[in-house]
Design a protein that fits this description.
Layout: H1 3-17, E1 24-29, E2 34-37, H2 39-44, E3 51-53, H3 55-62, H4 65-79, E4 85-93, E5 99-111, E6 114-124, H5 133-147, H6 151-160, H7 162-165
Antiparallel strand pairs: 1-2, 1-6, 2-3, 4-5, 5-6
Length: 166
């Protein structure tokens, strides 16, 4: 399997995970001049689609104008091979054209000494992160366990409070 086939599988995974995560996974395909991002990003931000050609031109539509030149400067360092990662905080325009702070991180994939892809994750800074019900339950259980090391006491309390966890 060549790397292009792996990228197609990665795109399928991004689509499959789209409603499972709050973050936005992306692929910048340098060789084909394409960009693909989690579909819910196209709903949240001022993008025409989750997939587009000519990303630098498209970025101008949703990267906040005061941040655009810095982002392009950093991406050009990646394209020239000067950097092998992208880690910046800047603003994107949401669907109402209001700036939203994001944290964008990515790792460069190099093939035959040439930059081929930038693959990474974007999250909104300050956006409330949700924690699942079972994770909360596990945290509470561990906290109770630290307070009471006797397993019988833990089990009894867990049974008594079981209805509180549902």
């Amino acid at each position: 399997m060549n790397f292009q086939e792996k990228i197609e599988i990665y795109k399928d995974i991004i689509v499959s995970l789209d409603y499972c995560i709050n973050d936005y996974l992306y692929i910048l395909d340098v060789e084909n001049d394409e960009y693909f991002i989690s579909p819910h990003a196209a709903v949240r931000f001022k993008m025409d689609n989750a997939y587009f050609k000519n990303p630098f031109k498209e970025f101008k539509k949703f990267v906040y104008y005061k941040d655009y030149d810095l982002v392009v400067e950093d991406l050009n360092k990646i394209l020239s091979g000067e950097k092998t990662y992208h880690n910046m905080q800047y603003r994107w325009l949401n669907d109402e054209s209001l700036p939203v702070w994001i944290n964008c991180r990515g790792q460069v994939i190099i093939e035959n000494h040439q930059v081929k892809y930038l693959i990474g994750c974007i999250n909104e800074i300050g956006k409330k992160q949700y924690i699942g019900f079972f994770a909360i339950r596990q945290i509470l259980y561990r906290a109770e366990r630290r307070r009471s090391p006797d397993p019988e006491i833990i089990y009894r309390k867990k049974r008594e409070n079981h209805s509180n966890f549902l």
